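Structure in, sequence out. Go:
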């Protein structure tokens, strides 16, 4: 993997903020009532598939967060191989806490390079349930394990991890970008 892809592992994939964006109503109500183009731009920070983002935006309003997350799951399961490739092209490397030492970054960089060489796209894994202390171990174990997968098996696993990532990002997006009126719920 090119070294330019590892300048800093922590961070989120996100589209640039729109400087002239007006404040919107809180939470899910804000998500449901925001202009479609703004919602699509925001959804693309969760999953970089245009089909996925348009499908969720087009099916608003959602009565509650659970309905939105269920729709996100359904839309993710319906991604074609081309949609999946589009979404994966927008993914960044697995996030790790800033405190991880450089030897761990070197090991992770080598594992990412091997994975990308074998499968042709960045390795994705949802770490929403991992503590910061467990993240590196979970990533290294998973990437080494998944390197032994055949391409079709890995395509299914990758699609599921991308779906889980999008679902977690979407939940945080609705709570934080559109307001805080959506009650917290575990993912």
């Amino acid at each position: 993997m090119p070294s330019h892809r590892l300048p800093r592992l922590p961070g989120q994939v996100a589209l640039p903020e729109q400087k002239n964006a007006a404040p919107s109503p809180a939470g899910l109500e804000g998500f449901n009532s925001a202009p479609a183009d703004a919602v699509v731009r925001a959804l693309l920070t969760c999953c970089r598939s245009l089909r996925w983002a348009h499908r969720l935006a087009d099916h608003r309003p959602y009565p509650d967060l659970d309905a939105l997350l269920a729709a996100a799951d359904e839309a993710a399961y319906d991604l074609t191989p081309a949609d999946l490739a589009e979404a994966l092209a927008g993914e960044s490397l697995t996030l790790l806490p800033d405190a991880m030492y450089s030897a761990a970054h070197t090991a992770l960089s080598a594992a990412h390079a091997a994975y990308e060489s074998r499968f042709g796209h960045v390795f994705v894994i949802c770490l929403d349930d991992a503590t910061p202390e467990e993240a590196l171990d979970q990533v290294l174990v998973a990437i080494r394990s998944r390197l032994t997968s055949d391409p079709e098996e890995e395509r299914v696993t990758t699609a599921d991890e991308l779906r889980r990532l999008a679902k977690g990002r979407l939940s945080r997006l609705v709570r934080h970008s559109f307001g805080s009126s959506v009650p917290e719920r575990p993912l």
